[in-house]
Amino acid sequence: MAKGLRAVNIGLDDFLSPFRKGGVPCADIDWKPPAQGDSELIDILFNLAVGFRNADGDSLIDIANHTGLRRILAAQPVVRRVRPARELIPDFAENVILHAGPPVKWENMCGPMRGAIVGAVLYEGLAPSEAEAERLLHSGSIACQSNYTLNVVAPMAGAVSRSMPLFLVENETAGNIAYSPLNEGVGHALRFGENHPPVLARLKWLEEVLAPALDRALVGLGGVALKPIMSQALLMGDEMHQRNVAASLAFYRSVATELVDAAESADDLKSIVSFLARENEQFFLNLAMAAAKTAMDTARIIPHSTLITAMNRNGVDFGMHLSATGDRWFTAPSLYPKGLYFPGYTETDANPDMGDSAIVECYGIGGMALGAVPSVTHLVGAGNLMESLEYTVDMNHICIGRDPDLAIPNCDFAGAPTGIDVCRVVATGILPLIISGVAHHKPGVGQVGTGLVTPPMEVMNKALRAFYQTVAG
Amino acid sequence: MNETRSEVHCLVLPGVYRDSVFLMKLSSRARELSGARQVTALMAAPRNKELLAQSGLLTRDIEAAGPDDLVVAIDAERELNPVAEKAVLDLLAKPPRALRSPTEHLAPKSLPMACERLEEANLAIISVAGEYAKYEAAQALSSGLDVFLYSDNISLADERALKRLAAAKGLLLMGPDCGSAVIDAMPLGFANRVRQGTVGIISTSGTGLQEVGCLLDRCGLGISTALGVGGRDLVDDIGGISTKTALERLEGDAKTQIIVVIGGDPGAETRRELAGMCRRLGKPVLVRYAGVAEYGAEDAAGIPHAGTLRDAVVMTAERIASILDTSDLDLPSPGVREKDRPSKSGLVRGLFSGGMLCRESAEICRALLPGAMHSNVRVDGVGLIGGHEPADGHVFLDMGTDEFTMGRPHPLLYPEQKLARIVHELCAPEVSVILTDVVLGNAVAPNYAGQLVRAIDRAAALTDGKSREKRVVANVCGTESDTPSRSSQIDILLRSGVTVLGNNARAAAYAAKLSLGGTV
Lengths: 473, 520
Prior knowledge:
Chain A is of the alpha+beta class and 473 residues long. Chain A is built from 15 helices and 17 strands. In chain A, helix 5 crosses helix 6, helix 7 crosses helix 9 and helix 9 packs antiparallel against helix 10. Chain A is globular and about 75 Å long. With 520 residues, chain B is α/β, with parallel strands linked by helices. Chain B has 19 helices and 19 strands. In chain B, helix 2 packs across helix 5 and helix 17 runs parallel beside helix 18. At the A-B interface, strand 1, helix 1, strand 2, helix 2 and helix 8 of A face helix 6, strand 4, helix 7, helix 8 and strand 8 of B.
């Protein structure tokens, strides 16, 4: 106490009045009951906070979480190759189609995911017609499997088949890798559940024209480091989930010269340049996702760690991994995004939230870095720029650190909030923010809007209870 | 040129990106902080490498770095290289100040965030409901803060867990149910404006701490630091964890010359440990334990002990300066005369906001009064009852206990419940004396004396003036620096016929004699 009192106050305001009168530094907390007043959860949080300590009194949970955070911050993801899935992943069985989110059976899939899965079956030539594809899926001759089982992340429906090209992203620091498909671009797309011929034709172009050229360019370059691009893009107003304009162009700039030689023909080059530099503002999203996964995977399976290492959605359920509980999925019904709808569509057309893309929020970008992106202020329903900054300030309550290499200029270059701690989420009742596209609930219609969504609170409570059972025995 | 180059120290951070303006600012700041001749941080793009080459700062490592790598060239006396390097890394890792955003005016919503805003915060004051407060206290201790835990309704097991955590981290948990403390002359909770001085106080009771602090003030003495430890700290299940930490703190506090420990119901084992610790302490310690019949452990350790809070103050004063006049402590209010006795003898009702004040009063009255006696605090020879139960004989109630405060504010904050009970007892035919405490200080109900007088008038209206035949005896715990001041509150009480005594022990003894109908 020799330095003089500096007090924070939770409760009666009168207790601070002598401090204010005396000019002694103090701060009031805008307090709400922890865990929304749920006494069972408060007891769990209390026991976790006072117990599980080493001989020095340091919390094993804090130590584990900061171990995880250090690894996440140290990750240096580099995109090395673009190769067909079957080549990169020998375990990818011939009769398997991958999907986003926690595991879900064909029978239980939502409309847009079914549409995308059928599209992938047709794309792969496993069935001659939609009806036949559905029959094979129903009978189980064609099996559906979660992307996570094969170390893949893919946005929205996330349908991935064997011949689709995948990015191979390596975390240079730890040496681990993750895969993601190439982003199809805006408009009609398989990921929103559309499967008509133009959608499949574009996938074919990705496979036959873009992927080989991009792979040659990347090999020539020895890979492209993704974190510097992410750092730069945040300064330029991207959060890298809903908005990827700057990041996509920065990536294009990195490979542009090499692509000139890598393209098979002048026509190919023209179509590639047009796609990367002009048409597809979202191209970087899938790279950000794989990059985020390589970082988050380094924090997996740390005993005592309460960090959230993965969040995803299959259009029915929201799924989540906690570090300490490894591959165990915690699930609860996925919520509907709130946001803006394309002309002619309303909230009644929306499918519940979907996709593996929330991995970027685990990493601290996307909705977590909303304050970096003045241009999405209105999209996310914030009344003004200050409100959207408040969202990011809120995210700091549930994260154990900030990534100084992902600086947010609007927050005076404070790093993006990183390392979501499920204890803090449950304690504060503040949920991570996710920016997401909205698919129509019927198969084959496509994207109808874009908006903001959170995980269901229930999934957080479930994960915390399960974690407590694990450590308390 | 080669010579210059050999002195250049460099740092390569692969894959770290910062904007050039940011890096220019960082470079100049790192130069200022480290005293290096030159610190230049750049992305290792070809054009930047040229710039470094022109300034003679291009090293082999920098030359080998790529455009995605952040490089730092440091030109400095050799011993300054690590300093400059650290300055750069610190500036990279931390923004100039955490999160100065346009939203900074918003109150933080969580304790970790509040600690970030209020750098080097060292104390959390917690007064929310106990079921929530325990978690907030755990958070505060985890964040490295001492805790003033005003909240009650926290289980013994949870208190033990919190205090063990505090001890492991070298922190002090004041509470739970800690009403008062004074640190760095700053009143915490319900605390009086007392002189600064050399007496350190450690107390399980908030009002016990207040009474001792105020009586010292009236002797012209001041306190260095007063620390509350929570009502149950000395039970063997807790083992005096906070008291021990507080003793260590006061031993290390240069201003403190003598320490007064105020406690209730110390466990046998805890008492022995504390006696041993006090003996080894480099400063004199004096104890006042309520509910203790013999002081074997303390006598063996040579620790002086006092029978009342008032005696503890007198003994402390004598040890500091033998010439101090402590007679003012015992002076009754003007106008206390024999005719002020009640018209007939009857029962005493002691109704208190302060647990220690209640307990001391019951102990003193037990020694002076025959017949049945009950209290909701544990006192030898006094029947234990619930505060809401009917009881025969004399009754002493601490109205700040959990049974009265569950879901309601403490009587020091909102005295309505206590005043209603006073009215009720004034109307009861078998009662002849009301004994009560008037506690002043920060955060307590303003002008409590005025409210008490109105309650007495209300009783008179309900009984057609009959209640005026009974006596109301009070001790006013406060100082002249408090707002309102002690003397102004006494004036209000005297005008209404309340008898005001010089301290809690005197008030209790006086009430007992009135109840007997004897001469005072």
